Request: fold
Amino acid sequence: MERYFEPGIECASREQITRLQDERLAATVKRVYETVPYYKNKMDEAGVSPADIQGVRDLHKLPFLSKEDLRKQYPYGLLAKPLSECVRIHSTSGTTGRRVVAFYTQNDIDLWEECCARAITAAGGTKEDVVQVCYGYGLFTGGAGLHGGSHKVGSLTLPMSSGNTDRQIQFMTDLGATIICCTPSYAAYLAESIIERGERDRIKLKAGIFGAEAWTEEMRQDIQNKLGIKAYDIYGLTEISGPGVAFECSQQDGMHINEDHFIAEIIDPATGEVLPYGEKGELVFTSITKEAFPLIRYRTKDICVLNAEPCACGRTHVRMTKPLGRSDDMLIVKGVNVFPSQIETVLLNDGYPANYQIIVERENNSDRIEVQVEMTPEMFSDSLKDITKREKKLVSDLKAMLGIYCVVKLVAPKSIVRSEGKAKRVIDKRNLYAGK
Amino acid sequence: MTVKQISAFLENKPGALAAFTRILQDSEIDLRALSLAETEDFGIVRVIVDDPFRTVQILKEEGYVCSLTPVLAIVFEDKPGALVNVLNLLGDNGINLEYSYAFLAKKANSACMIFRVADNEAAIKVLTANGIRPLCQDDMEGMFK
Reply:
C-alpha cells in the first residue's frame, strides 16, 4: 500500500494545488519586491509590479533568474530575511570559481526536510526503518537534506557521510540499514563491493534513494538486481533548497515535484517561451515558501519533460522526467558540478595552452574525468622530472578548483581533433541521458 | 666541450617512435645515439645526430615539440672501473646526474656515454682536472668517420 508523509497535500486536487500556488506566489513576489532591491530593480526594468502577479497564470510576466545572477549577487544580494533570522547556509558543489551560497531560516530547513521525508516515505520508509545516509555532509545539501528527512520520518538515521566503503558495509550489516541514500554511482560501487565480500546475504536493504547525478534506467536495473532493492530517483538543487524538490514514488515513472513549495515551468531555452506540459525544454523553478532565499523563475539548465497525468500512486503533483540533458555546458562528475571554463582557467594559470579536451567516462559505475592538454615548447623539457612535476601541479590545481581528482594526459601538439578550427572541448562517453 | 642533444615529445602509443625516426631517415639525418624516457602516457626521445640545428628545424616543421640541450659525451676505454671512476668524480663533487645513456662508436675498444648534469661547467672542470675530456660536436662527428 502506498504511504504518504503528508497525504492531504501530496494527494490534493489540482484546484487545491493551484489555489495554494496562486496565493503563495502572489505573496512571495510582493515580499521579494519589497525586501530585495535586486528583484525590485529587475521587475521595474521589466515593467511588472507585484499587483500584476495574481497567480500562476501571471508567472510568465516575471523576468528569469540565472546562475550568473546568483553569482553576481554573492553572498547577500538575494537575501530576503535579516541574517539574524537565518540559521544555516549551503553551497553548490566544488565550484570555487562559481560559488553560490543559499541561506535558510529554521522554517526553510523544516520545509526542506519535510520534502525529503516525503521522498523517504514514498520509498517505503517508516519510523521502523534504519536510513543510512552516505551523501556528503557539509556545504553539500545531500547529507543534510536526507538526514533531516529521515529524522522527520522518525527513522533511525546513520549519518555516515560519503566514502570509507569498509565502514559503510560494516554499519549496513551490523545495524541492519533498510534504506540507503547516496549517489547512484556510489550505490553501484557499494553493490559490487558487497557482493565481492560475500556480504550480500547479510544486508537488509529494501530501498535506495539515489540522486545528485544523472543515471540511466539500465543502471537502476543493475543496482536493483545486485542489491535486491527498489532504487528511487530524487532531484534537487542547492539554489532551490537541496534534494527533495522532486522525488520518485512506487511507480518509478517520473519524479513528483513538491508543488506546494515549488512552481515548475518548462521553457524553450533559446527563446524563454513557456512550453506546454509534455514538451521537452528547460526546467524553471519558482520557490513559493522559501523565506531566506526565494528564487523567482530560476533557470536550472536541466532539460526535461513535465507530466501532469494522474499517477497510479495517488499523488497529484506534477511529475518531471529525469534530466535529459543540459542547456549549458555544465558536467556533473562524481556528483560535482564542473564547468569546462573552470578547467580552462586552471590550464591557462599553469601556463598550458587552451588546446585541451575533457573526456568523461564511467568505469565500473564510477566517473572518471581526463583532461588532455597539448604539449607546447614552453612546457617541454628534456627532463622527465620537470614535465611530471608540472603535471602533478596541474593535477593538484585542478583538484583545488573542482574538488575532484582529474587524470591529466599530455598529448602531442595538434593532436586534439578540431572541427572548423574549433576543438570539441568535452567528450562525455557516459550516455547518461536516455534517448540522446 | 659539450654535444647538442635533441629531445622531442612523443605520445606513448604504437608507431610514435617509428614515425619520428622515419622523418630523420627521410631527411638523411644520421642518428648517433638514441634514448627513451617514458611515462604511462608520453615519452621523451633524446637523440644525438650529425646535424642538430637542421634536425630541430625539420622536427619543428613536422609539428614536434623539441628542445636542444648541451650534454656531456665521454669516451671510455673498454676496461673495468672506467664508468665507476667518472661517476665517482661527479658524485664526490656534488654534481647530480639527471640521466645517462650509452651508445656505440666506430672506434674499437671504446664505450661512449652521454651524461646530462645540472651544471655542465662544473662537471667539465672536475673531469678535465682528472684527465677526462668530454667530446665537442666535432669530436663526436670524428668518431663516426
